[in-house]
From TrEMBL:
GO terms for molecular function: ATP binding; protein histidine kinase activity. This is histidine kinase. PANTHER family: PEROXIDE STRESS-ACTIVATED HISTIDINE KINASE MAK3 (PTHR43065:SF10), SENSOR HISTIDINE KINASE (PTHR43065). Gene3D superfamilies: Histidine kinase-like ATPase, C-terminal domain. GO terms for biological process: phosphorelay signal transduction system. It comes from the Bacteria. Its EC number is 2.7.13.3. It holds the Pfam family HATPase_c.
């Protein structure tokens, strides 16, 4: 049980610390903590209290440990179904007005209050009255499982994280429902000892999911912090580099112009040609530094209400001369408007689409579609190019990383697009395999960007 205690409390801490503002993470963290409380009660009962008694602890210490055991046990039994249902409702994306969002958690507490007030108090054999608790705990857990399994997830990279959540959360909770409530209500007590293995399995799925597809946004958060720190370093570095080179290039141009006038006056054609080459090089240096600086400087959004489908169509229309033999298919239903920086969003779409076009060469299929979930609108840009291996996927958003060997490619297109999405409080993700093409997902948060469908009021 010590493993269960450590595992569940660690998971709770990770969930709470990773994104404190997320109701989904807070409630799932509370669910994990409730399970950890049950493990603590079992450890107190089996090890700590007997050890304290054998060591000659006084009556006050033993009473305090007993009360901690009683509180932990009761909190676990009542907390698991309660917090699981609240988590499932948040995860499902059930939209409630402000009044109901406060009232429903309170209403769901009523069976717990009834059991605390009107059923016998805790004792070591019957910590709760199983015959009564089973009638509300099982429906809570069954309803929560139904909410999670019926969550609509479009067939994108987000579907994988959804199934990670399902396999990490549902088996342990459903198993605990049988062992903690159903079987004890039939007289088979202390069945919770078998929860250890299923909790271990859920913990393993949680850890693997966190480091592969992500779990409740935790992998995304790790990536965000890494990319954000890299972008900050690049921003400050290129700002200093831009200032230094711009000054030196300016001096170079000034003296070259003076030499050019002298060469023209003295009719030294060979010197004039050399000076023109120097001036051309100085202009090229300034242009290159300016292009890098524009892509790495901190973005300031100029928000305006815009139709996301229109913005995407405008960006794609400008790319038609670059398509050559590539087929473009779009599924962009107009009507969803957001508070966006139109220019920056269009440039981000252009960068991703150009990456796809360049990857496919002279033939292929570029598909751009817009799908909606309860919380986000997802712009999907899919190509039939050669795809990426694991190393390429891991480095795709790193500044200056590029597989292209052209002199005009700085490897800043995808980091810039990522930066634009972060500024909009959204996310940019990719899914790719070698030989299977690449798909980028630009997820725009509906609530944060005040999304409104044509004919609807802004939420």
């Amino acid at each position: 049980m010590l493993f269960v205690l450590i595992a569940l409390c660690t998971i709770a801490a990770i969930l709470w610390l990773s994104e404190p503002g997320s109701a989904v993470n807070r409630r799932l963290g509370a669910l994990a903590f409730s399970g950890g409380a049950g493990a603590l009660a079992a450890i107190l009962d089996a090890d700590w209290i007997p050890f304290a008694a054998d060591a000659g602890a006084n009556a006050g210490t033993l009473l305090a440990l007993y009360r901690l055991q009683a509180f932990s046990s009761v909190f676990s039994y009542y907390g698991i179904p309660y917090f699981f249902l609240l988590f499932a409702m948040s995860y499902r994306g059930i939209r409630l007005n402000r009044r109901l969002s406060f009232a429903i958690p309170g209403l769901l507490l009523l069976p717990i209050v009834y059991c605390l007030v009107f059923t016998p108090p805790y004792n070591e054999l019957y910590p709760i009255t199983f015959g009564i608790v089973v009638w509300w705990a099982v429906p809570y857990i069954a309803a929560g499982a139904g909410f999670i399994l019926t969550k609509r997830v479009p067939p994108t990279v987000f579907a994988r994280t959804h199934w990670v959540v399902c396999f990490a959360v549902l088996p342990p909770v459903l198993f605990a429902m049988i062992m903690n409530y159903v079987l004890p209500s039939m007289g088979m007590l202390r069945m919770w000892v078998y929860n250890t293995w299923i909790v271990g399995l859920g913990t393993l799925v949680f850890i693997l999911g966190m480091f592969t597809y992500g779990f409740m946004g935790i992998r995304i958060l790790i990536d965000r912090r890494r990319y954000d720190s890299t972008l900050r370093a690049v921003t400050s570095g290129t700002a200093m580099l831009n200032h230094a080179i711009k000054n030196d290039a300016g001096k170079l141009r000034l003296f070259a112009e003076k030499m050019k006038r002298y060469a023209a006056e003295t009719k030294q054609e060979e010197l004039l040609a050399d000076v023109e080459a120097v001036l051309s090089a100085s202009r090229h240096m300034e242009e290159m530094v300016a292009r890098v600086h524009r892509r790495t400087e901190d973005l300031t959004l100029r928000l305006e209400r815009a139709d996301l489908a229109d913005v995407a169509m405008e960006a794609l229309h400008a790319l038609k001369p670059s398509l050559r033999g590539i087929e473009l298919r779009t599924e962009l239903r107009p009507g969803w408007t957001f508070m966006l920086d139109r220019a920056q969003t269009s440039e981000a779409i252009t960068n991703i689409a150009m990456n796809a076009i360049e990857a496919m060469g002279k033939q292929g299929l570029l598909q751009v579609s817009l799908t909606e979930t309860k919380r986000e609108l997802i712009l999907e840009i899919r190509d039939t190019g050669p795809g990426m291996d694991r190393s390429m996927r891991m480095n795709a958003f790193e500044p200056f990383y590029s597989t292209k060997r052209t002199g005009h490619n700085f490897g800043l297109g995808l980091p810039y697009a990522y930066h634009v999405m972060r500024k909009h409080k959204g996310s940019l993700q990719l899914r790719s395999r070698k030989g299977e093409g690449t798909t980028f997902y630009m997820a725009f948060p509906r609530k944060t960007l005040q999304a409104k469908r044509a004919g609807e009021e802004t939420p």
